[in-house]
Amino acid sequence: MNKLNDLLQELGISKVRLAKYLGVSRQMVYNYLELEDLSKWPKEKKILLLKLLDISEEGESTLENIKVTTDYLMSVENRLNQNLKNAGGGESYLDLKDLSKDAQSLLTDIANLMKEKLGEDRKKEENYSAFLYLYHMLQSMDNVPEIKYIFGYMSKACGFTNPEEYQFNEDKQFIFEGILYSALTLYNNGGASRSKLTESHRRFVQEIEKQKEEKLSRTQQLNTIRIQALKELGYTKIDDSNAAEIFEKIAEIESRGSVVGTNDK
Prior knowledge:
By secondary structure, this protein is mostly helical. Helix content is 66%, strand content 0%.
């Protein structure tokens, strides 16, 4: 595998470009290159690599026979570029031009890793649900700062980040990590059970249902106020010509706390 690393370096193929070509994350490329030989690679990825290098046999001996000439280098570059073009190369569906180089690299790595995980037959449905939850968390991150603390904790717990590093509100992140560590320690050491936590989980469900009811009630209230505003102004609907007037009336109705039933005359 050392010969392959040397060859890739001689050809000027970065780990990022190879990851895009193989359709995996950059980290997965590093994992592949740490394997003993190509026979340990997933069959599909191994075939792609052999095709890129224009060799029909696997093994260090075959790689050693490759002579990097100008013609060979250009042929590999053409195959690599053509594959990335056909596959979209990542940038075709994401507009990355306004992002920093580090942000572009991070987003590409995330997209490639998610694509890889979503394609795993054994865990396809499970991974889909996990990424759906992740998407929901990202949507809520601006309103729920604890989500960022969870990400930070997991990054530290998995060994990616220094445990004394704080990228957000240090005091709140410190407290949250301490609480989360205590909870997970209890969970992993068998100190928690479904029977012991039934009442706590019931309150959790009730709190969520209460929030949903409050949101629905607020939606219904706003709809009632909208209808009343239309009626008081003599309109039947909101359009560009009357929107400002109606919104002003809605604010007035809310401020005076007077909502007349929609069936009132």
